Amino acid sequence: MHLTTSYPDGLYIEGIALTDIATRFGTPCYVYSRAALAAAYSGYRNALDAQGFGNRALICYAVKANASLAILNLFANLGAGFDIVSGGELARVLAAGGKAEKIVFSGVGKSRAEMRAALAAGIHCFNVESASELTQLNAVAGELGTCAPISLRVNPNVDPKTHPYISTGLKDAKFGIAMDAAFALYQHAASLPHLAVKGIDCHIGSQLLDPAPAAEAMDKVLALADQLAVAHIPLTHIDVGGGMGIQYQPDKPAPTVADYLAPILAKLSDRHEQLVLEPGRSLVGNAGLLLTQVMVLKPGEEKNFAIVDAAMNDLMRPALYDAFHEIVKVGAGDTPQSFESDRRECRAVSGKPSWRTAKHDEQCWEIVGPVCESGDFLGHDRALALAEGDLLAILSAGAYGMAMASNYNTRPRAAEVMVDGDQVHLIRRREEVAELFALESVLPAG
Ligand SMILES: *Cc1c(COP(=O)(O)O)cnc(C)c1O
Known about the structure:
Elements: E1 3-6, E2 10-13, E3 16-17, H1 18-25, E4 29-33, H2 34-50, E5 57-62, H3 69-77, E6 81-84, H4 87-95, E7 103-105, H5 112-121, E8 125-128, H6 131-143, E9 148-155, E10 177-178, H7 179-191, E11 195-201, H8 212-230, E12 237-239, H9 257-268, E13 274-277, H10 281-284, E14 288-298, E15 305-308, H11 317-321, E16 327-329, H12 337-350, E17 363-368, E18 377-384, E19 391-394, E20 415-420, E21 423-428, H13 433-436
Parallel strand pairs: 4-20, 5-6, 5-13, 6-7, 7-8, 8-9, 9-10, 9-11, 11-12, 12-13, 15-17
Antiparallel strand pairs: 1-2, 2-3, 4-14, 14-15, 14-19, 16-19, 17-18, 20-21
This protein binds pyridoxal-5'-phosphate.
Pyridoxal-5'-phosphate binds next to α10.
């Protein structure tokens, strides 16, 4: 995301100061940039167009990365399709204006109700992950008097060299169909009356910074596609999955989309199949940040703790994967001394409390939330000059941030806003505490 610093308000996203967002919407608050989302989508579109895939590539945004209606609607308007993993995501995509015929349905466990809903909507394809799912889908499609379009998600057994929790393409993974078993299963699928074999699908993992494993997987996928064509099971599309990584740390750059896709597209360029891509993180990750405020500073002998009002329930990635998110000060980080004193005067005049007067020098801080878990941290050992009341921006939080948020500790989920030029729109209001137990009941009296 493009952040700029500007006198006197510190960090800006597009034309909006983050301090203004905090004042208007409170913290913690997820902030997205419309321009950054659109730019990420164009990055894919342009890379595909440049390689001659303009007319035969379908970008299916992986909804699970961030299922916000506003974000889905934005991508739908740009022409995107969607990769869903549940009936809930199907309903969201349709509510956001997504087109059913551009939806692919992934996931190892689809219920009959979900199959029915997706068939009724008329989705592009089911990415089937087991023999049993084929049988069930054939039966459900039969009951509805229709035919289900399918791909098999194969497991190419390549190591994506990413975090084990987001590695999905090794033999011991619960995902996909073993390469050795796939050919026979395709033959079986082709014999079932209520299935229409359309494609092949593979997704080996997430946050991949090197395209080599995906290219290696593609070789195996294409070899199988050729074998199937010989056996009179021609495929009309090849789904390369998602997984392209993003830059989280200044010293760990991510490739451009064009560079990442190049070796994969090279293998597909003289073929005829439609290309389906399922990017999630790379479309939204760097288009969002989590805005939070320092509540309490607790310097200690071993460690200094800065307790902020966002926590693991808002952003689980650090607790779950030990993931790194860059954390920057929104206010006076690099600002000149004159700014500091101006601010103080300004606050003194307006009668507001001045945090700045308590400004500390830079120290090492553990940035933690208020949740009662030692795993509740957002960043370790961050050198920041912090004072209570400071605003912090936790960067690269657009993917798997709000999507994984929970109400743990009965904490209302954060507000979400989208900046669009010099406008800012509330796209999800902050939850209220009473809403968090509104669905519950106590036992009857007596
Ligand atoms: C999660 C997932 C994606 C998206 O992965 P990213 O790493 O966010 O791009 C795509 N396809 C499938 C099947 C997935 O499970």
